[in-house]
Write a structure and sequence with these properties.
Layout: E1 2-7, H1 11-16, H2 19-25, E2 30-34, H3 41-47, E3 52-56, E4 66-70, E5 76-79, H4 84-87, E6 92-97, E7 100-106, H5 114-135, E8 141-146, H6 159-162, H7 170-181, E9 185-186, E10 200-201, E11 213-214, E12 217-221, H8 223-226, E13 229-234, E14 246-250
Parallel strand pairs: 1-2, 7-8
Antiparallel strand pairs: 1-14, 2-4, 3-4, 5-6, 6-7, 8-12, 9-12, 10-11, 13-14
Length: about 260
């Protein structure tokens, strides 16, 4: 079972850069998109004509939003978390498949203003409740997407300088630490403990060639999924957006394909 996730920073632009051909050649089962900036599901279906697609647009045109492309449709799709401020921005899709639940999420960044940081903290509380509710019914839950949080100092360049910036504050990191304490695991860190492994680079000052990045795109595994996970990697050589695609492979014990 293989999933690829990408903050596309506009799905139309990513498709124009070859995303469809690359994803289909990757042999991935599911493609999760964040920051799709797309209102038109018909456009997405036309871009991926051989596959099942769904999108959750923001009410504001050209902003936020999530989308999923899959070889096999899920049994159920839920848009949002019953959390108005994030649901109007199309930030969370929950897909139920045989044997696991997939939460495709685009967390708010909080960087634009103090008020948006408060929105982000409220979102974290809502996401905690959402994941807890899912675990009451499903053992295998996968949280994937642009989490917009660097959990540890090794997940960002110049950590001392960035510590008080949104995405690196203690209160945000505590959300991920609480998941870890509950038995969830950051899939990438199961396989790669190195510093300097990032998924997003600012467009300013040639940050990617200098590898001045943030690791904010992540897979988080509920306890029942940890032992089944085989690989997690970053596709840093792909330039569909200012984020790189990330990929998770695991042994799905339930029949999917």
């Amino acid at each position: 079972m293989r999933i690829i996730s990408l903050n596309a920073n506009g799905i139309r632009a990513a498709v124009s850069k070859g995303l469809v051909t690359w994803w289909e050649a990757s042999d991935s089962d599911i493609l999760c998109i964040q920051e799709s900036r797309l209102q038109d599901k018909d456009w997405l279906q036309a871009a991926f004509p051989a596959h099942w697609v769904e999108c959750f647009p923001a009410e504001k045109k050209g902003y936020a939003g999530t989308a999923v492309v899959a070889k096999i449709p899920p049994n159920q799709v839920k848009m949002g978390m019953g959390h108005p401020s994030s649901d109007t921005e199309g930030r969370v899709m929950t897909l139920t498949y045989p044997g696991f639940v997939l939460v495709n999420a685009y967390f708010p960044s909080g960087a634009s203003s103090p008020s948006r940081q408060l929105v982000k903290l409220d979102f974290l509380s809502a996401m905690t409740r959402h994941l807890q509710d899912l675990l009451k019914q499903h053992a295998r839950v996968l949280l994937v997407g642009d989490i917009n949080i660097c959990h540890k100092d090794i997940d960002i360049h110049h950590p001392q300088r960035m510590r008080r910036k949104p995405g690196c504050t203690n209160v945000e990191r505590e959300f991920l630490s609480a998941l870890h304490e509950a038995g969830w695991r950051d899939a990438f860190r199961l396989f790669d403990p190195r510093e300097g492994q990032y998924t997003w680079w600012s467009a300013m000052a040639r940050s990617k060639p200098k590898n001045l990045g943030w690791r904010i795109d992540q897979f988080w595994l509920s306890p029942a999924m940890v032992r089944e996970t085989k690989q997690c990697k970053h596709w840093t050589d792909q330039n569909f957006s200012d984020h790189c695609p990330i990929e998770l492979t695991w042994e799905n014990s339930m029949k999917f394909l």
